[in-house]
Amino acid sequence: MNARNLKLVFVFIAAIGLLGLAFRLISGVSDPETLSGLFPLNDSIVNEIIVSSQENESRLIKSGETWRIGVNPVYDARMQNLWGVVESFDDAHLVAINMESQNVLGVSEQNGIVVDFISEGKSLESIIIGNYVSDSGLSYLRRPGHDPTYSLPFDIGRIFNPNPDSWRDPIILNIRESEVESISITGDKRNYNLRKLGGEWFVYADGEQYSTSQTVISQMIQLLNPLMAQEFASEQESKFLNFEFPDITFEVTYQGTGEREILLFILFEDQIFIKFDGKRTVYSVQRNMENLIVPSLSDIIQIGD
């Protein structure tokens, strides 16, 4: 279906919805103009959330004060966004009352994203998240077992994602630049050390000190604050990655405490797999980011020095 026909379908559905609303108003039977009657949902009551579609399921479990997806902590920013959307449910506006619109708007049990809010094993509330229409800026939702469909003016599906990896913390590293004593990069024709002296970065290699290219070092530091994963390696992929012999080792040492953060890199043709030394999670970024994260010595030395 092309974009023009899709727009016509939504106009048709909206017209049916408006006719239905008019009929109910005339007959004295009306649905609330905003979504109401929901159980009061918040982080102190709910301890399990299941986000599911026909293809995927994410099960978020609260353990103490921490939300987890499997053995991994849920990204705090995602949970904050989730509860922000939940608070907006009461502001959702009625757009259709007929069952015929549910498939088109994506809020049927077959094509919607079902979100279950659970407390101590008991379901408190369920919501079906439907399509997001960029032209109107609206997402659609309804309660299972209820015909009325409502809308909110943002993409709810981006928050309630049934893909489990979407809930994991994508931050690989977030260096505290003001506290960094040194950054050491070795492997894959790289063997140098970066140190900050008097507010300026210098690079040390083969017993020599060089000034750094401010453009290259600025891009590198910016990318590391924070360094974000694009994907997570699957358990199967992780089994075949030998981090005992990484292609590149990236080590940050902090002033005073001597605290160290060590990242191990394995390079593939189109991907870089990254993990913290001694930890299980394996992240991946695109291979074309290599020279931004770990510049070659020739790139990082200031031209003319």
Secondary-structure blueprint of this entry?
Layout: H1 3-27, E1 48-52, E2 57-63, E3 66-69, E4 72-73, H2 76-88, E5 93-96, H3 101-105, E6 113-119, E7 122-133, E8 138-142, E9 149-152, E10 171-173, E11 180-186, E12 191-197, E13 200-205, E14 208-211, H4 214-223, E15 227-228, E16 231-232, H5 235-239, E17 248-254, E18 260-267, E19 271-276, E20 283-286, H6 290-293, H7 297-300
Antiparallel strand pairs: 1-2, 1-6, 2-3, 3-4, 5-9, 6-7, 7-8, 8-9, 10-15, 11-12, 11-17, 12-13, 13-14, 16-20, 17-18, 18-19, 19-20
Nutshell version of this structure?
The protein is built from seven helices and 20 strands. It is an alpha+beta fold and 305 residues long.
Cα(first) to Cα(last) distance is: 60 Å
Q: How would you write the strand order of the largest sheet?
A: 4-3-2-1-6-7-8-9-5
Shape: elongated
* Residues in helix, %: 10-25%
How would you spell out the order of helices and strands? Answer: HEEEEHEHEEEEEEEEEHEEHEEEEHH
Compute the number of strand runs. 20
Give the domain tally. 2
Mean pLDDT: 87
**How would you characterize the largest beta sheet?**
9 strands, antiparallel
Could you tell me the strand content as a percent range? Answer: 25-35%
Q: Report the C-alpha radius of gyration, rounded.
A: 26 Å
Structural class: alpha+beta
Tally the helices.
7
List segments where confidence is low: pLDDT < 50 over at least 5 consecutive residues: 1-29
